[in-house]
Amino acid sequence: AKSGPVPRITTGIGEFDRVLGGGLVAGQMCLLSGAPGSGKSTLVLAVADSLAKRLKRPVLYISGEESVEQIAIRAERIGATSEHLLLADDTELGSAIGHIDQHSPDLALVIVDSVQTMASSEIEGRAGGVTQVMEVAQALTRVAKTRNLPIILIGQVTKDSNVAGPRALEHIVDATLSLEGDAHTSLRLLRSVKNRYGSLEVAAFEQTDTGMAEVLDPSMLFRGHRDTPVAGTCITVTVEGNRALTAEVQALVAPTTNPNPRRGVSGLDSSRMAMLIAVTERAASLKLFDKDVFLATIGGMRLSDPGSDLAVCLAVVSASQEAPIALDVAAIGEVTLSGDVRPVPHMTERVSEAARLGFTRLLVPVGTKARIRDKAIELVEVPTLTRAVSAMRR
To answer: Whole-angstrom Cα distance, residue 339 to residue 342?
Structure first.
């Protein structure tokens, strides 16, 4: 077999292509999941319309959840008006494959919304059951592979945001994408969880009245914009896939008479935050046993990157001591139980992103200077959290 770059089919929606690794691949099976109302159907409808307009070839959208009239109304609202965009409503697998056969081999893409609503009359069990979901996925995979036809399956999710149905479903497909976002914000993050044809990436979209708008510079959404520094805030640079993003961590420390002080967390892992609060209390000689501590990110950002640990700790110190951190300072590093600051991956990308956004001082783990020589930004190496707290005050 010949090796080389995988030929890509670009959809025309740059951020969607980016998450897939450069575009769709012939014969690719892609599973897109997300919570109800997150914008899955709207996003794929825009992708279908864009691809149909670019290639001037038919794109088939099969829905088991909405009628053709309902899809047409949404398509009209978001401007998906390509004459090559074909709509069908069906829940029978055989009929769906019949629609594909009718327009082959000219089809550029098939979208099935959703895999849990489709069922085969040849298999026992209700639509959405384990047996039916696996049969539908396997049958459509055979269609995709034998005809070199990319297919996007939309998958429903459970209340804990996992794809509904058997875990084997995620093994069958070539790429698994997740559309995440807080119901109270318009920001949506499209994340690749699995990709056989590329690295794991993330892209940002904004849900608007006219569809999903691409956010080309997500860093600007995840940090506050203010003229003077505010106590309890610290900027960090996280990495999603291969993309570096700045994010702001906010902390509030307030006195309480409650014998069991509250520890509230939003957008961060609560168990890890409890550990970091305890480490900070010891390293900075703080007394937080009689204070409520709240930690949050802004813009609906979810931070699971250990590289944000140092910013969390410094935000708590800043809030507790009412000592604002300068606006041009950011912090990157993993904090251990012993209070040491450890290196994290992708430091070059993180430092470059901080410099691009105008930060002039970066608190980093020891060893960073030896690997990165960026004259646009001052790298301050901090071996421990105690040293970082001292450096924060300068």
So the answer is: 9
Given a contact cutoff of 8 angstroms between Cβ atoms, the answer to whether 100 and 149 are in contact is: yes
Site of tokens 């970091």: 276
Do 233 and 224 contact (CB within 8 A), yes or no? yes
10-residue mean pLDDT profile of the chain (394 residues): values are 75 94 95 90 95 96 94 94 95 95 93 93 87 93 96 85 76 93 82 90 89 87 82 94 89 94 94 96 93 91 92 97 94 97 95 92 95 88 96 82
Count CA atoms closer than 13 A to 271's CA, side-chain side. Answer: 0
Kindly give the pairing relationship between strand 29-34 and strand 151-155.
Answer: parallel
With beta carbons less than 8 A apart as the criterion, state whether 354 and 377 touch: yes
DSSP 63: E
Write down the H helix ranges in the chain.
14-20, 40-55, 68-78, 93-103, 130-147, 168-172, 270-283, 309-321, 347-356, 368-371, 385-393
Residue 268 sits at φ, ψ, to 5 deg, of: -135, 165
Paired with 89 in beta bridges are 63
Q: Point out which residues pair with 60 in neighbouring strands.
A: 86, 110
Cβ-contact 297, 245 below 8 angstroms: no
d(CA 126, CA 335): 49
Cβ-proximal residues to 368 (8 Å cutoff; 6+ apart), any chain: 343, 347, 351, 379, 381
Kindly give, in sequence order, each residue whose CB lies less than 8 Å from that of residue 357, ignoring residues fewer than 6 positions away.
Answer: 219, 246
Q: Say if residue 125 is exposed, middle or buried (CB neighbours under 10 Å; 0-12, 13-18, 19+).
A: middle
**31 three-state secondary structure:** strand
Tokens of 39: 């914008």
Q: Two tokens at 254?
A: 């307030």
pTM for this model (two decimals): 0.81
Helix axes 270-283, 309-321, angle to 10 degrees: 60
